[in-house]
């Protein structure tokens, strides 16, 4: 029997909540426990529903989505937050990640399929970022690494196979699993297997950790 993912949606626009709610109801493994228009009602709904994933916008009346993410991390650490926002600048993304977001999607071009995939990925305890957001994250960490005084030793890349190094470089350049699959003429499952191998070799806790490592070792063509 498929496990149901309990989900809450937070957005201050009724028409957006209704549209996304209708989409979520089409997935047989995602249970929408409720919708909230602001920070306070969202926290109360989380207390009542004990969700697995909270989808939130960043622009909320009163306290912001960043405040909500930070509070969820503090009070409900097992809940994973997925940002769905029209704001895709570096500042917004950085602050969301710093607050504790596990995923980030742009409202402008996120499909129903990608939304479902992001929710399911967060439910498995993994982070998820759209291709465009991953590219912004890459630029963010590239800038921070250039300012760092003690970069990570490139010698750690020596235990990667040639194919793993190639796949790691493509991830760092912002390619998705599907795009890497097509570029290298291998299956998506094979791409994901290589990614898991890379994550295990260096005990990366998240995709962001993996991207930071790739940038520190100059594997990305930025």
How would you characterize the overall build of this protein?
There is one protein chain. With 222 residues, the protein is an alpha/beta fold. It has helices at residues 14-24, 39-49, 65-75, 90-99, 112-123, 131-146, 162-172, 177-184, 188-201, 207-216; strands at 5-10, 30-36, 53-56, 80-85, 103-106, 128-129. The protein has a six-stranded parallel β-sheet with strand order 2-1-3-4-5-6, sandwiched between helices. α7 (162-172) packs across α9 (188-201), α7 (162-172) crosses α10 and α8 packs across α9 (188-201). The termini are far apart.
Instruction: Briefly note the CATH topology name of the largest domain.
Output: Rossmann fold
Determine the CATH superfamily of the largest domain: Response regulator
- What fraction of the residues are assigned to beta strands by DSSP? 5-15%
Number of domains: 2
Examine the secondary-structure arrangement and name the CATH architecture of the largest domain.
Answer: 3-Layer(aba) Sandwich
> Tally the helices: what do you get?
10
Task: Provide the succession of SSEs.
Answer: EHEHEHEHEHEHHHHH
The CA-CA distance between the termini, in Å, is: 45 Å
What structural category do the secondary elements indicate? alpha/beta
Task: Please provide the count of β strands.
Answer: 6
CATH class division of the largest domain: Alpha Beta
The biggest beta sheet reads: 6 strands, parallel
Net shape:
globular
* Spatial order of strands in the largest sheet: 2-1-3-4-5-6
Helix content bin: 40-55%
Whole-number mean pLDDT: 85
Using only C-alpha atoms, the radius of gyration works out to 18 Å
Uncertain regions spanning at least 5 consecutive residues:
145-155
């Amino acid at each position: 029997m498929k496990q149901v993912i309990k989900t809450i949606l937070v957005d201050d626009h009724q028409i957006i909540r209704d549209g996304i709610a209708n989409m979520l109801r089409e997935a047989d493994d995602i249970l929408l426990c409720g919708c909230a228009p602001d920070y306070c009602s969202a926290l109360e709904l989380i207390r009542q529903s004990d969700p697995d994933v909270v989808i939130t916008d960043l622009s909320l009346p009163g306290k912001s989505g960043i405040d909500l993410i930070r509070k969820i991390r503090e009070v409900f650490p097992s809940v994973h937050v997925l940002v769905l926002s029209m704001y895709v600048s570096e500042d917004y993304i950085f602050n969301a990640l710093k607050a504790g977001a596990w995923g980030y999607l742009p409202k402008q071009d996120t499909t129903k399929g990608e939304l479902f995939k992001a929710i399911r990925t967060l439910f498995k305890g993994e982070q998820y970022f759209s291709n465009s957001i991953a590219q912004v994250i890459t630029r963010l960490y590239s800038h921070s690494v250039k300012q760092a005084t003690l970069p990570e030793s490139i010698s750690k890349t020596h235990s990667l196979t040639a194919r793993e190094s190639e796949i790691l470089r493509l991830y760092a350049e912002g390619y998705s699993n599907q795009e890497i699959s097509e570029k290298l003429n291998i299956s998506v499952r094979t791409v994901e297997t290589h990614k898991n191998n890379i994550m295990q070799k260096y005990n990366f806790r998240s995709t962001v950790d993996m991207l930071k490592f790739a940038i520190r070792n100059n594997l990305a063509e930025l």
